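Render this sequence as a predicted structure.
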Amino acid sequence: MRDPAPETRPVVLTVAGSDSGGGAGVQADLKTIEACGGFGTSAVTAITAQHTRGVESTHVVPVTEVTAQIDAVCEDIDVDVLKTGMLATEPIVDRVAEHAADLDVPAVVDPVLVAASGDRLLDPGAETAYEDLLAAATLATPNAAEAEVLTGVEVTDVERAVTAGQALLDTGVDAVLVTGGHVPGDVVRDVLVTPDGTETFTHPRVDTDATHGSGCTLASAIATQLARGDPLTEAVSAGTDLLERAVRYHHDVGGGPGTVHHLAALRERAARTPTREAVEEVVHEFVSADVGRVVPEVGMNVVGATPYAETPGETAAVEGRISRTPSGIAPNRGVRFGASSHVARLLLTAREHDPTLRFAVNCRFDEGIEAAFTAIDAPVVEVDRREEPAPDEEGSTMGWVARRAFDRVSGTPAVVYDRGDVGKEAITRVLAPDAETAVSRVHTLANRAE
């Protein structure tokens, strides 16, 4: 018999409606809470028959049963944060407001009024009842449409978001995050308004309509971070970062646009060990085959990205690169995450155009290797580095190289090369969707080079 090893995690109680399609509501809340390191409990306010295309029907749970669920949780479990979503009717809003006032814990209120599909999720008469709930809340997270309903302020930019947020502060809520996903533009701007000032969190807009469950996911992520002890600003920052990834790597499910991937950040962390092991195996293959013919003077690196990688810290590479030695080639040190900046940024920018890309290898360029390009059964693209701009704010021009390559070819390039410039070594860069393809392409260059 084994001894138990119990865990203690911060507890979040979500009071919200269910979504039979699994993308929003209580289902989204519980997935997100667990993904962020919390323990999720729930009180269901309404049962909706919905999917990615809309809401088919709604059955509101009697207010006495909503109360019974909240009481059952709170009498047995120490709740660290209360999070609310779809509350459906005025009596439920009133009752939840009473609980929020009585519970001595932070409360995050997502004022769910209308589904992303346009279906109404709150009785019109219940809107004014939100004032008492907001008065007991730590944070409200309305989107632009919800903020307009609650304040009468049409949110079209950051300034109007601040105006709406300040109007909501008059209800007594401690802070307001007016989310910008519904405001047109290439950049999403979420505006946090507090009595002490404002702060804007910006992210590039993901070109997709698969945002079903985004509001629930964001509010739940923030609530869990607060339950873990994060200050409000840090919790909001973590929540908006999580949502950006959840939208980009959304679930392609259903006949509608799809739903956000609540566990994308968790999946990214889970993919790190197999990604590191894959890079180690590629390095082993190169050392065993002695591909020194294609190792450049600056050294070769092998970079592997997790399927959800967004930053160099989420890519594995050889620390110190791979160098030629009198007896072959050898890595200078081991493989770790964040070991590459240069090649990693090339790969990450390439993934903006083709997210299936997972590996990149920088190799030597000369006439012999150029002759071997004919054996690569995929696009090979030349980039003229004499045209590249000054290094960007991150000190790297590799993003420009990747963007330039994709601009010059239809599809995804397998090889991107340049002939160098003053102070810049000529380089061949191999891109691949998996480790096996990366090995094959580099071996082809090494074996076919004249």
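Summary. The first helix runs from residue 25 to 35. The mean pLDDT is 93.
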